[in-house]
Amino acid sequence: MDFTAKLFDELTTTELYELLRARFEVFVIEQQCIYPDLDGVDYNSLHIFRKGGDRIVAYLRAFETEKGVVRMGRVLTTKRGIGLGAKLLKYAIEEIDRRFMPKQIIIESQTHAVGFYAREGFKVCSDEFMDAGIPHVKMTLER
Fold first, then answer.
1. Terminal CA-CA length for the chain
2. Global pTM value
C-alpha cells in the first residue's frame, strides 16, 4: 500500500471520483461542513493519496500559491489510529520538496490538529479564525 502523487491530468477518472468521494465523506458528511470543495484549485494541484482496495484511505492536495510557496490542503484519512496521517504528511513533504523546491509550505490547520502538523516542524503563524464553522490557524514549514 504505497502513496501515489499525480497532477490532475494524470489522475484516472476512477481516482478522481474516489478522491472527491473521500473528501465529501470526511468534510461534508463527517464534519458537517458545507463549503465549495470544487473550487477550481484541483486542476493545478499535486494530488497525493493512498488506496486501500478501491477506496482512497489518505489524501491531500498541494499547489504553488506563488514562486517558492506551496499550500497543502484537504488533508484526510479514512482509516484512523494507525499512523496513516503521519505517513501521508511525511511523504507529501518529501514529494513537495522534490517537485517544487519551496522556501515555505503553508497549511490552514483545524485547531485541534495543530500538534499533528507541529510534529513535522510546522509552526503556528496566525491567530485562530473560523473556516466553514471550524476553528483554524495558519501554519508554516520553512525549508
1. 28
2. 0.94
